[in-house]
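Board notes (copied after class):
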Amino acid sequence: MKKNPRILHIGSNIANNVYLNALFLRENGFSADAISPNYDHPISTPEWERAEISSENIPHILKTHKIMGIDPNFTRPSWYQAGPLAEIAKNFGYISKTSNFGMADKYLKKVLAIVGLLNKYLKYMSVNEFIYFGQLISTFKKVFPNRKDRLSYEDIIPYISEIRALKHIFKQYDIIQAYSIAPIHVMLANKRPYIAFEHGTIREMPFENSPQSRLTALAYHLADHVFITNNDNNIAAQRLGINNYSPIPHPIDDYWFRKAPKKPGLKTKITTIFCPTRHDWSIKGLNQFILAIPEVAIKSRRKFEFVFIKWGNDYKKSQKLCTRLRIDKHIRWTEMLTKKDLVQKMLESDIILDQVILPCMGAIAPEGLQAGKPVLLSYKDELNNWAYPESPPLIKVYSKDNISKALFDLINNPLKAKKIGQKSKKWFNKYHSKEVIVKKTLEVYRKLI
């Protein structure tokens, strides 16, 4: 690997993946920057991960999207930038120009225009851009011969102004790690090498009939390497003809775990089941957890309490379902939690609920494993075994029936739950920690730069 390489992580900072991966590299002495153009959601920021935030401030933060300065002792690192791309590009010394073509380029334009090759594209792109984009259009047709839709100049034109700004930024780095649909920009900027980092991105999007879908498909196919975090997406990678891909865990920080009190608080005889997942039934399936509670109440010999967060498009539907099922006495609702409070709540709980839709881990499950708790998740070993040498000690659940069975087994056997939790923490440290993520990242970098 090149000595002291300059590394850029770019893309929408969803789940703080962009920020955390760059942070982990910097903590290991590497020069890694992160930018999240045109995206700055308050939950997806350095402040949310590491600033000392009071839970009382959360409603204001979510309403105003203002999180910077919320902790006077926390300063956003200079190596992380978010917001409008135009402002970020200015910070990199980019000056937008209406015309950037030399005399030879103008002459070629006239020649090509005469033969009708540029037509209406003359006002949008230079000759070099026209030729390169044309090569991409041709490549798309060769790579995906069975697709009815086709990549076109019209698909690319909306990206051109951004691409010129990003080219200026990219040339200052040795390698680019682009997240979600950001590989489109790196491909169009003709920057090499680049890594495409998917977090659910390629499951469906690349196969739809839209400009973004076509460009996403090609950008992932042409990437020098692809990191897959949703392990079932190795199927999508194969459909896209990607050969150079490898699994990598979602970045999970240990900051608040390290700062948490070493001695646990007084433990009550009530089993606490904590579900930090958002209430979007079609995406997370939390209604299945709620539907299982009546049977849990019948068969459990110990007292228990479910803790849900008022978060997601369907949380009010969840509240109504709890009332209809007459289980409100077993439910406690809490407002959105800060990252610090979320970690503390996990550590205080006995069981963690993730989701009942996707067959792989996102961010909640590994957080629960790191906390040393049994985690319930619709995880399928057959889709994940290629990514981990050892299956995680998750409690696999797929419907209200096996959810209820798993829950009253854990509630009635606290010693069993504790042993599973101990295995969970050991597994996380061995296969999902930030040390593992950095190691896997650098193994790929060494092959490319």
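Comment from the instructor: Confidence is low (pLDDT under 50) at residues 99-103. The domain at 6-97+158-252+436-448 is CATH 3.40.50.2000 (Rossmann fold).
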